[in-house]
TrEMBL record:
This is PDZD2 protein. It comes from the Eukaryota. Transmembrane segments: none annotated. Residues 1-41, 97-182 form the PDZ domain.
């Protein structure tokens, strides 16, 4: 990153700084594709940006350490930074950003797992999708998907109750979720 424009999305959001290394944007690695995505960013509901902080480049120049990366979820005119680099086993290709419209009925799914759950420390997974709810209507969430963050708040390492409270506290309207898709292999 050579320069961050003061009135641009990156400056307003605050995660990307001069000297950071952009590793990919919307899974594009070709320089021309990246520039094209950046120029047309206003046309999309969200953009996924994977960055490596400059301070991490000196320490990890030979290999990419997942802890130095993060996913950016941008939607509905507001930027939501969701750092998920704490899991060394995280496959970034399975992580997606989705937007649901929260109503008085909630987001339309229930959770299972969490830190210190009955089955031990488990990831927070979608246990059930409610018929007619926001999750079912979007068609993007399935039972078994892991919820990593909601509206910029990481759910990694939280107890079920704490994650549930964060989800409940999100106001009605568009809500960005960062999820890891369940693999059926």
């Amino acid at each position: 990153v050579h320069r961050v424009f003061s009135k641009g999305v990156a400056s307003q959001e605050g995660t990307i700084h001069r000297g950071d290394l952009v590793l990919s944007i919307n899974e594009s690695l070709v320089h021309g594709d990246v520039l094209n995505v950046l120029y047309q960013a206003r046309l999309y509901k969200y953009t996924v940006i994977v960055i490596q902080k400059e301070k991490d480049k000196a320490n990890n120049s030979s290999r990419l350490d997942i802890s130095a990366t993060g996913r950016k979820c941008v939607g509905s005119g507001k930027d939501v930074s969701m750092e998920i680099g704490t899991d060394p086993n995280l496959d970034m290709n399975d992580v997606i950003c989705i937007e649901l419209l929260k109503t008085s009925a909630g987001l339309g799914f229930s959770l299972d797992g969490g830190k210190a759950s009955i089955a031990g420390d488990r990831p927070l997974l979608v246990k059930r999708i409610f018929k007619g709810g926001a999750a079912e209507q979007s068609g993007n969430i399935e039972t078994g998907d892991e919820i990593l963050a909601v509206s910029g708040k990481s759910l990694l390492g939280l107890m079920h109750y704490d994650a549930w409270n964060i989800i409940k506290s999100v106001p009605e309207g568009p809500v960005q979720l960062l999820i890891r898709k369940h693999r059926t292999s």
